[in-house]
Amino acid sequence: MESPKAYNPKDVEDKIYKLWLESGFFSPSSAKATAGKPEKKFVTCIAPPNITGELHMGHALELTLQDIIVRMKRMQGYRTLWLPGTDHAGIAAQNVVEKQLAKEGLNRHDLGREKFLERMWQWKEKYGNAILEQLKKLGLSLDWSRTKFTMDPEYQEAVKTAFLHYHKKGWIYQGERVINWCVRCATAISDLEVNYIAEKSKLYYIKYGPFTLATTRPETKLGDTALAVHPEDGRYKNYIGKELEIESVDNLIPNDQPPQKNKIKILVVADESVDPKFGTGIIKVTPAHDITDFEIGQRHNLKSIKIINEQGRMNENAGIRYQGLKTSQVREKIVEDLQALGLIEKVEEYEHNVGRCDRCNSVIEPLPSKQWFLKMKDLAEMALKAVREGRVKIHPERWAGPYETWLKNIRDWNISRQLWWGHKIPIDGEEDVLDTWFSSALWPFATLGWPASAKASAGKPDDFQEYYPTDFITSDRGILFLWQVRMIFSGLEFTGEAPFKDVYIHATVLTKDGKRMSKSLGTGINPLELIEKYGTDALRFGLTSQATGLQDLRFGEDLLVMGKKFANKLWNVARYTLIKLGENYEQQEKTPDNEISRKMREIAKLTTESIESYDFAEAANRLYHFVWHEIADKFIEETKNKDDQETKDTLAYLLLTSLKLLHPFMPFVTEEIYGQLPWLKEKQLLLVEKWPIDKL
RNA sequence: GCGCCCUUAGCUCAGGGGUAGAGCGUUCGAUUCACAUUCGAAAGGCCGUAGGUUCGAGACCUACAGGGCGCACCA
Fold first, then answer.
1. Under 8 Å between Cβ of A424 and A430
2. Does residue A83 share a domain with residue A148?
3. Are residues A53 and A199 in the same domain?
4. A352 and A379 share a domain?
């Protein structure tokens, strides 16, 4: 057979992927795939990409690692299932479509809920499908016959069932509590969706009767209902429990008139949460606009006065002097007034953390709002136990620490969002939708037919019974708490079993200078452009060879140059072998017993071990070195003036074994070469060839 | 504030007690041979700093510095 001197991925990739699809081997239930292997199963759980846009490098790495495991397991004779899908991505997707509308000069209220949701579904059709197509470009061996979306009708049933289950148990409650409110997105968001970013601002020392106290948010003064000190703080002991009359600014004087003083009464309480070392050791308590203050308020039965509304402006409780102003404006105004009245002692420069919305970067406004909450106490306990008892293993192990810490500090989960795109809260008259992670948390079993299948008693086993729980999941550290933790406790609560046995936290792909890759920062790199330039195998191999799980990966194209050269080297090792062996070579049953073949077997063993312990980079680099420097540089050179049978047998053995071992990493070039070998006796697809090492 | 990770060649990273490694890049040279996406060679490192353990430390311990991350605070 004539093959080009250089490997050209473009001639190969689409053709090969089509071949795999037609074979049916991606599905564990195809007749061919199940033949003779009813027992061994391996199921891996995908992190469904958001429908918001396109694939990024993080996806490329994560999905490649997952595909490596799946392909090895399939070759080891396991019935493998890897189910693809997409996530509706509530707030993120809604924001994207709203931005699109804004370009047309519209907002979602102009369209109304129904029309807006139509737009969302149109978006989902177009971009959801586009993403799935991109996954195929990465060569992933996903079972496309089982593709799911987090808002499929059956999935909606699962979400409803889960919500009602919690509700019936009394774990879901509606409460007026201080939550993180994003003024721009006009919705509540969870603690995890707030990013705290250090910013320079000012610390104002305000006179409160006999005290002076420090605050960064003087405007919340209008909602103060107490002062608080630490119970052990000697300086203020005599004041605890007393109500003081203090001078303040009169908020009923219209703002076109000079400020005037008035007198207000305020209680002093003692609370452990006060740090005596901060400022003057005494703080103002604004239960309506600070989460900590809200909790102090609850402990001491304090009144809560809401002075900031959902638009981020002062409401009627702030008094006519300030009503209607934005919080940033009122801050200046009130400081001005207090200064005029001599109620400000000093102002210091101060750097502190400001909460910003994870999705739009607006400043978060904590405010009291009626929201739905899920009690986390028991669920957190379950999730903790599952990891402590080893039913779920986290790799690398050091992530188990943060997992513990996070669960121990957890607050109840605010699961309602004031959005239109998402799962409606399944209680009559409720207009809100659920946090997108509430549905994501059910992914491992909702995609397999839970809860319908869990109830089905008779008949043949269905997907849920057959493939749950799964074996493996991998993700970036960024969603360990947002998602993995929530899948674990949801799985335990609804199915009695953890949804997966192993969680592997892979490296985060950064830019060359160590910055986070982000589309909005313009630092993102589109993997598809790199595939165009270097080929999928080069991308996969390059990324994998540097993904160690310990250190983040600073991405540079030099990795792909290496991958591309290596694919070509393998291609030419094959060309040499084909020419050397000729048309009439016959495959031998026995593997040759010589030094290089023994080394090859050792490499096979080590590769298997490395992949099974998630040392992907180690496996990739070892294979690279062996194929290039042992097989090509040394052994092949030595065979150039030999023509004996053992040499041929050895070449054939080395090539086939290398193809098998490299197939999980570089599926396209290996499959293409395999297809060109004329001497194989029972040729099928490399995809389902027997892995060189059976059991360790 | 508490904790975790990282610091090794120009760049990106391996190496986890016993003569400093890879890929990319650079320089020089080769080439009708499976591959110029190749081959050969070279240059390039007091392995973040300072102490300690050891016959021996890039590796183990302790501090410190710089970079990153998580949790808490963020009044």
1. yes
2. yes
3. no
4. no
Q: How far is the CA of A360 from the CAs of A58, A245, A326, A417, in angstroms?
A: 21, 42, 18, 15
A428 domain residue, yes or no: yes
Asked whether residue A301 is assigned to any structural domain, the reply reads yes
A458 pLDDT above the threshold of 60? no
pTM for the model: 0.92
What are the DSSP calls for A652-673, one per residue?
A: HHHHHHHHHHHTTTSHHHHHHH
Q: How far apart are CA A668 and CA A405, in angstroms?
A: 43
Distinct helix (H) and strand (E) counts, chain A:
24, 22
CATH number at residue A609: 1.10.730.10
List the A568 CA – B59 C1' distance (angstroms).
36
User: For residue A623, how many other CB atoms are within 10 A of its CB?
Assistant: 24
State, as a whole number of angstroms, the distance between the CA of A588 and the C1' of B63.
63
A627 and A600 belong to one structural domain:
yes
* pLDDT tens readout for residues A105-115: 888 888 899 99
Higher-confidence position of A31 and A134: A134
pLDDT in tens, A534-580: 999 999 999 999 888 778 889 989 999 999 999 999 999 999 999 99
What b/e string do you get for A268-284 counting C-beta neighbours within 10 Å, with b at 16 or more? bbbbeebebeebbbbbb
**Contact positions of strand B to protein Cβ (< 7 A):** 3-7, 11-15, 22-25, 34-40, 67-75
Residues in chain A: 696
Percent of chain A with pLDDT over 90: 53
pLDDT bucket at A1, cuts 50 / 70 / 90: very low
pLDDT, tens digit (0-9, with 9 covering 90-100), for A2-48:
578 999 999 999 999 999 999 999 998 765 555 665 578 899 989 89
State the nucleotide closest to A5 in CA–C1' terms. B35
Domain end among A510, A540, A564 = A510
Which of A312, A333, A367 is a domain's end point? A367
Domain count, chain A: 3
Q: Is A396 in the same domain as A379? A: yes
Residues A332 and A415 in one domain: no
Distance A595 CA to B75 C1' (A): 72
State residue A520's pLDDT score: 66
Asked if residue A286 and residue A261 are part of one domain, the reply reads: yes
Report ipTM (2 d.p.).
0.95
Other CB atoms within a 10 A radius of the CB of residue A1 amount to 9
- How many whole angstroms separate alpha carbon A545 and alpha carbon A539? 10
Q: List pLDDT tens digits, range A386-408.
A: 999 999 999 988 899 889 989 99
Domain hosting A605: range is 555-688
**Residue A358 within any structural domain of the chain:** yes
Q: Which residues contact A620 (CB under 8 A, 6 or more apart)?
A: A541, A544, A545, A665
**Distance of CA A507 to CAs A216, A329, A521, A544, Å?**
38, 43, 20, 10
Counting residues of chain A whose pLDDT is more than 70, the rounded percentage is 96
| DSSP state for residue A524 in the 8-state scheme | -
Gap from A609 CA to B20 C1', in Å? 27
Tokens of A661: 């071992």
From the list A187, A196, A271, the residue with the least C-alpha distance to A236 is A271
As a whole number, mean pLDDT of residues A56-70 equals: 94
Nucleotide nearest to A293 (CA to C1'): B75
Domain membership of residue A42 (yes or no) is: yes
What's the pLDDT at A38?
Answer: 58
Q: Are residues A276 and A335 in the same domain?
A: yes
**Peptide bond before residue A469 is cis, with ω within 30 degrees of 0:** yes
